[in-house]
Write a structure and sequence with these properties.
Number of helices: 6
Order of helices and strands: HHHHEEHH
Strand order of the largest sheet: 1-2
């Protein structure tokens, strides 16, 4: 059950990072993205290329975590009250790589820009819980 909860949270984290990708890479100059990131049109224009690139980093983290979730789900077979994961090493590794990187990026934001603590927690809370639940679930 902890593994499933961890995978669900990893999925939530991936969706959050897809949303960040959309804001940073597709909608950066629009009013919604500027409001989320607290930017003037001039600031958004000056940082457009950086945001476009950063958005793709967020998308790639989401893809890595999502692929790991799929690989774990495909290899999962219910056996009584537990789950046996035929493909755990590859799937779990991808989930940990994607969500662990999300946590690390959130911590960098928190440390480098403490005033952005809300954005940092949004970025790192779900993946951190996913890492903990998945690790504990796989260890049991």
């Amino acid at each position: 059950m902890l593994v499933v909860a961890g995978l669900v949270l990893a999925g939530v984290a991936a969706l959050i990072h897809v949303y960040i990708f959309i804001l940073e890479s597709l909608l950066w100059m629009g009013p919604r993205a500027r409001a989320v990131f607290g930017l003037s049109p001039e600031q958004a224009g000056a940082t457009r290329e950086l945001a476009f690139n950063q958005g793709f980093y967020n998308l790639l983290l989401a893809v890595i975590a999502g692929l790991g979730i799929v690989l774990m789900a495909v290899g999962a077979t219910p056996v009584g009250a537990t789950l046996v994961f035929a493909g755990t090493p590859v799937g779990a590794t991808l989930v940990f790589a994607g969500t662990g990187s999300m946590v690390a990026a959130g911590l960098v934001l928190l440390v480098s820009s403490p005033s952005k603590w809300s954005a940092a927690l949004t970025q790192l809370a779900a993946p951190l819980l996913a890492v903990v639940l998945l690790a504990v679930g796989l260890a049991l």
